[in-house]
Fold each of these.
Amino acid sequence: MKIVAFATIKMNSERVPHKNIQQIGSKPLCYHILDTALKVKEINRVCVYCSNEDIVKYVPPGAEFLKREAWLDGNEIRAKDTYTAFVNDVEADIYIAMCTTSPFTQGKTIENALQKVLYEGYDSAFTAKRMQTFAWYKGNPINYDINYVPRTQDMEPVYVETSAFFIFTKELWIKHGRRIGFHPYIQEVGEIESVDIDTMEDLEFAKILADNVLHI
């Protein structure tokens, strides 16, 4: 069983300039989750999929650079495009698509989710934050009756994807083009692991967390 983890990386981004090489703690943002994946024993390869070879200066030793086509850096390109290109370039039975914007993802989190796919019959796995609170969508509550307001501990939780990683089989991607399958395992993560850097505010918060709480 060949397991390949990969991170698709652009050297620049719209909302946070040069996001992937911004310093989080003692290392660049893109360093952290790659370094974590390298320590997961079940993973056979950890790849950096980027059009710019300069990225090698910012990733940990052991992460393998694979050059992707420059058109995949376009602002209109979706994750599905880069995943398909990577799957076409790299053979594996199971892929772990990792997001560098989740620098506080732990190795045991990846390991647990991977075990579920390998041995417990799940066809995929993804990270999510459990929210047991009053949630609304399009003007209506989605997890409680507005005429009977429950205690929060009695509510049905909702799960919000954090996108730290998606684990999926090659068969699932080739046949259905889906990173989340028909029987997925939801890997719950807490407040720190759920941090995802999409905005400048997120970046500043992650820097404070890394420097003053985690000391990484």
Amino acid sequence: MLLIDGKKTSEEIKSEIAARVAEIKVEGGKIPHLAAILVGSDGASQTYVGAKVKSCEQVGFQSTLVRLEESVSEDELLKVVEEINKNPEIDGLIVQLPLPKHISVEKVTNKIKPEKDVDGFTPANVGRMTLGWPAYVAATPYGIVELLKRYNVETSGKHCVVIGRSHIVGSPMSILMARNEYPGNCTVTLTHSRTQNLAEITKTADILIVAIGKPEFVTADMVKEGATVIDVGIHRVEDSSKKSGFRLIGDVKFDEVAAKASAITPVPGGVGPMTIASLLYNTLLAAEGKVYAK
């Protein structure tokens, strides 16, 4: 069984990005600059944004963090987004989710300039990805594709089953795995919470991508012998044996599924670290004008 190490791979990608930034400095070019907007004081969001800012420093990017009170109005937030849209010094913009209930995620996402949408969430980038045009691909799907590529997982002609249909992971993943390139050329089945006889379908998967958001949902009896299993889920569960009082698990029951899989991602240390590496990669593309020509 091959352990697909996202932590190791993400560090390799960061090293590659840092090397390119060093070249840009020597060339006298523009250093990539990522801006993040954080609304409110949600603990998980602060942790995620902090990790993104730290990663920017690690690879030599410039970064800007805009903190706004949870009470900020939708109009005020949209004005901040527009200011960053117009700032030529900033290459990429992310608005950390979730947002307070009084703010429309759709309105805010749609306000972000597609050329700066390094999260890959705007309709323009989702549409370009669907058409197979150059686009900023959402960070988690891009990270998964990169893991499959760097671990030489054969995808052509394989049956890929995706569990979960979110706009952030499941739906784009199904499109990427069906496209006519590597990784891709799979026959894809997109399943979700309303799918009947789910286990019968997952047992036919050569590649199983699980993003359903339910702890240890996929068990060994749902997996084909020799399948490649990608676990996107991450959940915190109480564990008194740990110093922290909790441990992290995924959407897949790792120990029993690993015994049947030919390759599998762990939680933590699998897909998660790849998300930030992908965000940095998109920001580098934005700074160099490689998706939307400058």
